[in-house]
Each structure stands twice: as structure tokens, then as C-alpha cells.
Amino acid sequence: MKVVVVLSGGLDSTVLLASALEQGFEVRAITFDYGQRHNREIQSAIRVAHHFGLDPGNTHKLIDISHVGEQLLQGSALTSPSVEVPLGHYADPSMRITVVPNRNMIMLSIAAGWAISLSCGAVALGVHAGDHAVYPDCRPRFFAAAEEALRLGNYVSLTVMTPFIDWTKAAIVKHGAELKAPFELSWSCYQGGEKHCGKCGTCVERREAFQLAGVPDPTEYFV
Amino acid sequence: MKVVVVLSGGLDSTVLLASALEQGFEVRAITFDYGQRHNREIQSAIRVAHHFGLDPGNTHKLIDISHVGEQLLQGSALTSPSVEVPLGHYADPSMRITVVPNRNMIMLSIAAGWAISLSCGAVALGVHAGDHAVYPDCRPRFFAAAEEALRLGNYVSLTVMTPFIDWTKAAIVKHGAELKAPFELSWSCYQGGEKHCGKCGTCVERREAFQLAGVPDPTEYFV
Questions:
Q1: Per-state percent for chain A, helix, strand, coil, to nearest 5
Q2: Percentage of residues in chain B with pLDDT exceeding 70?
Q3: What is the Cβ-side half-sphere exposure of residue B25, based on CA atoms within 13 angstroms?
Q4: Which among A97, A157, A174, B87 is least buried, having the fewest CB atoms inside 10 angstroms?
Q5: Is residue B71 in some structural domain?
């Protein structure tokens, strides 16, 4: 079966891509520039796709909808330069300011359109249990409803695959280590500097996941 | 209440905009360039928005996602130059080739993201009963599922307004005539030439709607 993987360049989608390939799926990957502050992750997505032999512009599409983020999806720390990225734990209520309005539905909708055009049977996303507290569009019932909307809105049915949706990030790191996923190419930090800042919610969560998994962390953190 | 109207530049969304303003909604409009063959309709959307005093780039956003259509949503007569637009009635099975994969979910998702960012309570689309035969993403149950996905995927609830969803196009023309909607500025033809071709499904449906409504048709058709 063919599957379209939404590849952000983060740790979770990097392991998802490794996992889909390992399971024998014929993989297409799609990466979105939605005007995110940490567009450094897009470079990571390109490197990860290259690592796995995907072909830029063909089996790996980079889709620039940065104007959508900049003109329409304002108010989030990830799309509004004037809103600061909060420090602290990824699941803290303060992280709500990093929610981008309707982000996953936008990305899923476009990825699904491509999947249908390619006669792919599925779209896969690397959301995990740690996302649920803050991001409503990472919860199981959102994906169930979105899958139903996709089924009703098109002549073909697509499966929305979210294999890590009940996993901790530590479990994803363990799985990635087994698959020899290129963790060092992936990017988590919301600040999007030269190195991972080590203090923002995603850095805290990333570092903690490696520790809990007992897997050496190849990430260079600023602090 | 504030509402985001998806304005294609076609007849239905032109009347929808007129109707929303007449009902006292504070209106924002959004128009998508998704690489449609008949991008002539975008010029119509700009003229219609101007007619109603909307402000380009501010209360009327033109969003260019033509690369999404060109790179991802291939196989439709509306996005693939090599696929011809069929002639005949709008409800003919042959019109299926004009279906663009997941088009309404993509546009609704982006419009909804903007609506949430603006604290709008609703997104409105001008779909009508004549669309149901060929376009699954114009049917009531699709919009019900999409509204549910939007509710579950965000911290605020949005209403997806489709006031014409059970109306014939003739009823929309009648309503538009009462509102003095600028029919002459709107565009239907899928061929997208200088004039309406008069032969494609949307031209046939447009002409028929004026005749059935008993409203003078200001459209200049090629044949």
C-alpha cells in the first residue's frame, strides 16, 4: 500500500517515516512551510527525506503555505513574531499559546488531496500522547472525525494512520532507536535557532524522552 | 456576528456574500487560487468583493495555493491542463472528471483557521443542491462531519453555514435578484475564456437557472 507521510522534520515524524518504510509501505512524504517560527525543522525534513532516499519534488513534496500562516493563522507563538515561545514543560497550560489555529486539519486536508490524486490508501501523521494535553487537533477523536469527513467528501476512502497516538515520546524514541532512525537529523526546538535551545517545551520534552527511553541523545542543546 | 465567506467569484458565492451582508453579518471574504483552469473567476471574486466595499488584503483575502493544485491535486479537468472540460449538463456523470480531490475540505480548513484567528463564529460556503450529484464535498453530510472535525480540533466551535445547500440554482438566482446581487460580475464557466463558453456544464446550469427563475440573464455567452 502507498501512504503519504506528513513529515515535519521533528523527531516523531522522522520515526514514523522510518517505521512506514520498515513495514514495507510505498512512501510519499509531504512537508509544510506554514510560516512556523522554527522553519529550521524544514531543513531537517529535507535531510531526513534525503537520508531515506526520497526524491525532492517527487516522492518528497515541500509545500509552501507560509502566506497562510502569516496572513491568516495569527495569534500563535509559532506564527506571530510578536508572541514569545513559552518556556517550561510541553504539557504545561502555558504552551497553549503555541497552538496554531486548525493546523492539523489544514495539513491533513492537503496531504489527503495528494493521496487521493496518487491513489494512496492512507495518510500518516506522527502525533503522540504527549500532544493531547495542549493540542486538540492531535487527539484521537479529532482524527476520527476528520477521517469521516474525508470519507464523505471524496469518492474514495482514506485511512488516517496515527500509529503513535497513544504512545509516549519515550516509546517513540525507543522504537526509533530499534529502527536506527536518524535522530540527529531531526529538529524539535520551537525557538528555531542554530542549536536546540534546551529550555522551550519541545526541547524539554525531547531531552526527557531520550532519558526515559535510556537512549543516547545526539542532540546538541544550547543549555 | 462575524463570518468568513468563501468567495469563489461564482454566482452562488456572490449571492451568498450579498445575503450575509443584507442579514447584518460582519463579513470577511476569502478567495482561493488553487490552480483552477478557470482562474478568470478570481478576477470576478475581486470585482464582487470591491462591489461590496471589502478591502483587498484585509477584509478580502486572496490566497494563492495554485502550487497545491498544480503539484498535488492532479487528475481533474480543473487542475490538469491535459484533461478536457466535459460538455453537457452540470449533473451528468461525465462531470465527475471536474472533481478536484478534497477541494472543499482544503478551502474550508484554511478559511476556518482564519476565522478562529479573527474570533469569527462561522464560515459560510455557497454550495447548493445542484452540486450534490457530482461533488461529494458539497453534500450536507460532508459539512456535518467537517464541522464536527473543526469542533474537536480547536478550542472554539465554528458553525459551517451552507444556507443554499438544499436550494436549486434557480432559487439562488431569484434570491440574488431580490438582493440586487451583481450577477454580471460573477463567473461560472469552467473553460475560463474571455466570455462564458455557453456549452460546459456550469454554463448550461447558469443559463438554465436564470431561465427557470424568470430573471434576465446579464451573461454574455460565446454560443
A1: 45, 15, 45
A2: 100
A3: 22
A4: A157
A5: yes
Neighbours of B59 (CB within 10 A): 16
Nearest-CA distance A211 → chain B (Å): 31
Strands (E), chain B: 2-6, 26-33, 60-64, 122-124, 159-161
Smallest Cβ–Cβ distance between B150 and the set A74, A102, A117 belongs to A102
Specify the pLDDT at position A192.
87
| Res A91 pLDDT > 90 | no
Is B142 near chain A, with CB under 8 Å? yes
A220 belongs to a structural domain = no
Q: Report ipTM for this prediction.
A: 0.97
The mean pLDDT value for A194-201 works out to: 94
Neighbours of A59 (CB within 10 A): 15
CB B49 within 8 A of CB B7: yes
Residue B219 lies in a domain: no
Q: What is the pTM of this model?
A: 0.98
Output the furthest CA–CA distance in chain A (Å, rounded).
51
What CATH number did the domain enclosing B140 receive? 3.40.50.620
Report which DSSP code applies to B184: G
Within a domain: residue B16? yes
If one counts the domains in chain B, the total is 1
Q: How far, in Å, CA of B201 to CA of B207, rounded?
A: 10
Q: Which parts of B12-119 are beta strand (E)?
A: 26-33, 60-64
The average pLDDT across A34-54 equals: 97
Range of the domain at A61: 2-213
Compute the average pLDDT of residues A172-198: 96
- DSSP annotation of B98 reads G
**A82 interface with B at CB cutoff 8 Å:** no
